[in-house]
Amino acid sequence: MPTPSGPAATGPTEPCPDPAAPPEPTAPAPGTGYRLVFAVPEFRSVFAAHLLSALGVVVCEIALSVLVYRLTGSPLLSALTFALGLLPYVIGGTLLSAIADRYPARRVLVVCDLLCAGCAAAMVVPGTPVAVLLALRCATAAIAPVFAGTRAATLGDVLGEGDLFVLGRSLIRIVNQSAQLVGFAAGGLLLAAVTPGTVLAITAGTFLGSALLLRLGTRARPARQTARGALLGTSLSGTRRLLADRRIRALLLLTWLPPTFVVVPEALLIPYADLLGAGPAGAGLLMCAMPVGAITAETLVGTFLGPRARARLTFPLGVFCVLPSLGFAFRPSLGWAVVLLVLTGTGIAYNFGVDRWFVAAVPDELLGQAMTVMQAGRMTIMGLGMGAAGVAAEYAPLWVAMPAGGVVGVVCVLLVVAQVRRTRVGPCSRGPRSEQYAYRKARQG
């Protein structure tokens, strides 16, 4: 993986050239970056598989929520199906994270998809108790961070070192945001035509399709670690090792904190739409605004900016993404609220720089586990942020609770940015990645 790139004033400095290391890839010409990524056949399979599984996850959440509500008539249990999509991430991300490195990546990805397909298929069985349905939802959520971390680490093998990896990660994020828009619409249309059980059966098929694409479209590569031991102990020791490193810890916080405060206004959009009297259509418009901003920013930044320009934007965008929520203090109308949310979504482009710096800081044998911990931490802390937003809204008006998240978020993100700057790589340092170049080339074949 590459060493961190970024200007001396805003991020890690460039290390001195290493004659034993591969040449740093040049920035893609404007308009060609994503095309270069899609030119890699293996990535096309990974991308198509992720598209299927991401849509399957979103549609599964909708169908299961409707099914639980029809079986129980309880809004609480129906909403709980969405919450259970976030909470088990911390279990999979800590207790199972070593799986990403101790077993061959393709095998892990295929097995995860098959397990998710099995859970979705089990939900279709008539007479399945609601408690079992919720347990199956928890199981798929616990699998999700292992799958995401393994796939993220695999992108380094598929796309090599440098900017293609960063652009590949960007495309995965674009799929995630697009899945929210397309998945909710598709799920609603399907549920209008067929039963929730039929929709769940379709989602099982999407997971099976993803598994088939990964099995046939990606190469078999050896595990990153050869050591064996208790999975729980290995996972916990690896996580401790990652968190003990000041730079890795700072970059993890930079990955986690902005989304935590970004979801504060997002979690309160339904009551805010009700406050405005906007109705279901207005609420839907508000819910779509942030993904639209994210997709637009990711696409424009990835297409028209090179690695150095994207690195320079990392800190400003990380802070900027929590600022628009301050505008809710002025009780904006529906139109202005949509604008604020679109601007919030554009801040997702700060991940370009963080991805590059993070993979440069992590030892190769822990890359899969590091990506798993990153994903699990992000989803878990976002869930806590949503919960905190709901609690705040119980005791304060929305136009106070929503901007309060922005104020606290700006302070926290600025503190983390300062920590990342303090842990930046020295001008002639040798990162662990340069020592592992031979190993990486062997894995890439």
Main sheet characteristics: none
Calculate the mean pLDDT score and round it.
82
Helices, by number, come to: 21
- Number of β-strand runs: 0
Low-confidence stretches: 1-31, 426-445
How would you describe the shape?
Answer: globular
Rg is 21 Å
| Proportion of strand residues | under 5%
Structural class: mainly alpha
Order of helices and strands: HHHHHHHHHHHHHHHHHHHHH
**For the terminal residues, how far apart are their CA atoms?**
15 Å
Indicate the percent of residues in helices.
over 70%
Write structural notes for this entry:
This protein is mostly helical and 445 residues long. 75% of the residues lie in helices and 0% in strands. The protein is built from 21 helices and no strands. It has helices at 33-38, 41-72, 75-83, 89-95, 99-102, 105-124, 130-159, 163-193, 196-217, 231-244, 246-267, 269-276, 279-304, 307-312, 314-320, 334-346, 351-361, 367-395, 398-422, 432-435, 437-444. Helix 11 runs antiparallel to helix 17 (351-361). The longest helix is centred in the first third of the chain and has 32 residues, at 41-72.
